[in-house]
Write a structure and sequence with these properties.
By secondary structure, the chain is of the alpha/beta class. It is 26% helix and 14% strand. It has one domain.
Length: 205
């Protein structure tokens, strides 16, 4: 029988509690997570919630998804989306200067195909400001295989957004992710490939 930590929710042998450093930020995050990603053992959205407890996760696949998202957005004055749409602006650019005025950022958590499907479904997000990453550092999340060199974990996407929008340090997020992946002994074939494509856009996983 496997025992789980009552605080972090992970198996006792892989408990990450000692690495959790709680952050409180004026910027909040909503992670809309594909239902298949929600059950993936290596998803990092759970780690984000441990570090930033104000973070909300809404899992797709229910008939009430659109209503849940709409209801949540009403709590904020200036929400925005981190998604590389045709109309998105690089979060690092001068054009994105108003980015610091947002009080909520929404991320779509899943594969490229899953994120695109959620994007098409959630039409209410299309009217919000949209941002993508042009200069994010390479991902340090090595335990999940990807073909895209600019793919970031959800945790890294949240951390990079924090770095560009407020003075909060993202270091606690990165340290927690490093602790989490230190427990995994997956084969090299299941890790990030050094020979990856050079897609411009952002994927979170």
């Amino acid at each position: 029988m496997r025992f789980y930590c009552s605080d972090c929710g992970y198996p006792s042998k892989t408990c990450v509690c000692q690495a959790v450093e709680t952050l409180h930020s004026d910027v909040h995050f909503l992670i809309i997570q594909h239902k298949k990603e929600a059950i993936h053992a290596k998803n990092t959205a759970r780690l984000v919630c441990l570090t930033l407890p104000e973070t909300r996760i809404i899992v797709s696949g229910t008939e009430r998804l659109n209503q849940q998202v709409t209801d949540y957005l009403q709590q904020y004055q200036s929400p925005a989306v981190i998604y590389p749409s045709e109309g998105s602006v690089a979060i690092e650019s001068l054009e994105a200067k108003p980015v610091r005025e947002h009080d909520l950022f929404i991320l779509l958590d899943g594969s490229w195909k899953q994120a695109f499907g959620m994007w098409k479904t959630l039409q209410q997000l299309h009217t919000l400001p949209q941002y993508h990453f042009d200069s994010a550092p390479p991902s340090e999340y090595e335990i999940r295989h990807t073909k895209f060199d600019k793919s970031l974990s959800t945790l890294e996407a949240v951390a990079y957004t924090l770095t560009n929008t407020c003075e909060s340090s993202a270091a606690p997020l990165h340290r927690l992710q490093q602790k989490f992946q230190s427990f995994w002994q997956s084969p090299q074939a299941h890790r990030r490939n050094s020979e990856v494509s050079t897609n411009k856009v952002l994927k979170v996983q």
